[in-house]
Design a protein that fits this description.
Number of strands: 12
Radius of gyration: 19 Å
Shape: globular
Strand order of the largest sheet: 3-2-1-4-5
Bound molecules: adenosine monophosphate, magnesium ion
Strand content: 15-25%
Oligomer: single chain
Largest sheet: 5 strands, mixed
Helix content: 40-55%
Distance between the termini: 19 Å
Length: 326
Amino acid sequence: MICLGIEGTAHTAGIGIVDDEGHVLANAIDMIGGESGGIHPREAANHHVKVIPELISKAMAEAKVGYGDIGLVAFSQGPGLGPCLRTAATAARALALSIDVPIMGVNHCVAHLEIGRKVAGCEDPALLYASGGNTQVIAYAGGKYRVFGETLDIGIGNMLDKFGREAGLGFPSGPKIEQLAKQGKRLVDLPYSVKGMDVAFSGILTAALQLKKKGTPMEDLCFSIQETCFSMLVEVTERAMAHVEKGEVLLGGGVVQNKRLQEMVRIMAEERGAKMFVPPSKLCIDNGAMIAWTGLLMYDSGTRMEVDNTEINQRFRTDEVEVTWR
Ligand code: AMP
Ligand code: MG
């Protein structure tokens, strides 16, 4: 069976086409631009309305499939921004009804983990999911995907982008901060905020902006932001791995493209005799292929949904998902 997956939780619209062996036949992505950064939910939704039809055609051409080949339509049901989620869900319902195939709503965070498990070749990892809007450590335990630690305020990518916007770096700022950090020499003190298994970033943002005003060089600030925030992530990831005894750590979300973060996680993993896995970039960021693949896992293991009960869920919790496929 071939599944077409529609991603639309935030700034990225994506159409992925995947077969039931997990081959990614197409993965077309379009992210709303805007040098100023920050997303307005309705503008992002309007962007998705505009690009989704083009992305569907593009993905189908790339995958060399016709409508008759698609056996399932999956979409990102949550968590995310309401207007964006509704756009993706509406597109999925229209497509599923018009080609008369089943529909499947997918949890976005679980999809990041499942595509990683499939393409990066790990079995039972703890996922460090670090993206614009989300920051969570997720692992499978007792029949469910559970959140072992998460941000108490904003996502780490959001923090990087907000700092970058104030500092005039443009959007997305993560890659620019990574480059500047390489020239950083001095570690300045920022509020390292780990509370139990959770992390918080807004204090670091405020402190970094104050230091910027006082003239701390951008290179040192970027370096210090990375070292501080990534250490926090590594600490809670390691604690989760120890707690649930996982020998694998998987990375997901746009921020994990950062090489320094990868290096820090790799060192932590090696020191505890564990292994790190990083999916290819286009499958780390928000994408439709991960939605399609997770939809297939759900369908194959007996989950069924009717169009009538495919409401979006802006606060769809990772541990609300009934994991029928493991
Ligand atoms: P996502 O929300 O998963 O699509 O990822 C987007 C986020 O990843 C944005 O906040 C970017 O600033 C961030 N990002 C992208 N590349 C990097 C990088 N090399 N280092 C840090 N953050 C990054
Ligand atoms: Mg994501």
